[in-house]
Design a protein that fits this description.
Blueprint (H helix, E strand, L loop, with lengths): L3 E6 L5 H16 L4 E4 L10 H23 L1 E7 L1 H4 L7 E4 L3 H4 L8 H11 L3 E3 L15 E2 L16 E6 L8 H11 L6 E4 L10 E5 L3 H10 E6 L8 H8 L3 E4 L7 H9 L8 H10 L5 H8 L5 H16 L3
Parallel strand pairs: 1-2, 1-3, 3-4, 4-5, 5-6, 7-8, 7-10, 8-9, 10-11
Helix pairs in contact: 6-10
Amino acid sequence: MPGTDVLVVAAGNTTGWRTAASELVRSIAAAGARVEIITPDRAPRVRTFALTDFVEARAARRAALHGIAEHDPAAIIYCSITAALLWPRPGAIWLDAVAAENRPGRHGSWQRVVERRRLDQASIVLTMSPGALGSLTAANPPVGVPVPVDASGAPAPSRDIAAITYAGDPEKKRLDHVLSAWDQARSEGETLVVAGLERLEPRPGVEVAGRLDPAEYRALLRRARVFVAAPRREDYGIAPLEALADGCQLVTTPAPGAYPALEIARRLDARLVDPDIARAVRIALDDPSSGYAERAAELLEPFSRRAVDRTVAERVLPRLLPA
């Protein structure tokens, strides 16, 4: 008899995936299943995307082997397509994107071949958003399981921060583009808060919040009027979703990738999805759409913990653990 129902093999090199895997474990446990999680050691930094994916996949394989030996699971969920590439035993895959979409050319020379086999071999494919598979298909219809996003608390008494952005990876988030747009857009007395980054050259109207714990960061979102994003690519994008959940207007460029917050932003106020984010910022600050936060809360309901827990209990576990 298996020692546990589900073993979750987390992706080890990003905070976002570790957080996501913890949420998945919580949902599985809430449904009454026995669940364990194992997280690979952080893989060393290497020079190319192809090698990065290999060392991370190898670390996930080692972790999975250890978890299988220790917990004897009935089923396994690999968190990210990379974690599944070298799997020692088939299982389910939870993914935000595939190499066919975000590893073009030589960057995905081996990953694109292997991932097609894994998608066909997986017991079930769980996608964070409808666009996660891109042009690929799985042998069985995927089940949508987003990383849950809820409001973090009551709104602040006033939204005294004009704008906020998250720049944990300044190059991927195109912080330079955001700052340039803010220089054009800001009026006297308005401040853009930059979170997720420790240092930045001083400039008028910009305040660096640094790396914050989640509660501190979400408290800033509840005080901000606008969240500004200009990613090069967004496979899922938890930060824009959290901003919407906490009542910020989302100003963003129309970036490639699954990026579920992008379609929500368009439905809420299409004027704020614009390559010219300086123009969109001024619209958001000077002419905000009526009822924006309330409508955002309605559109985010499928991303709530309640909705995700229901999906895991009713659509995921019965396929993973048939009676």
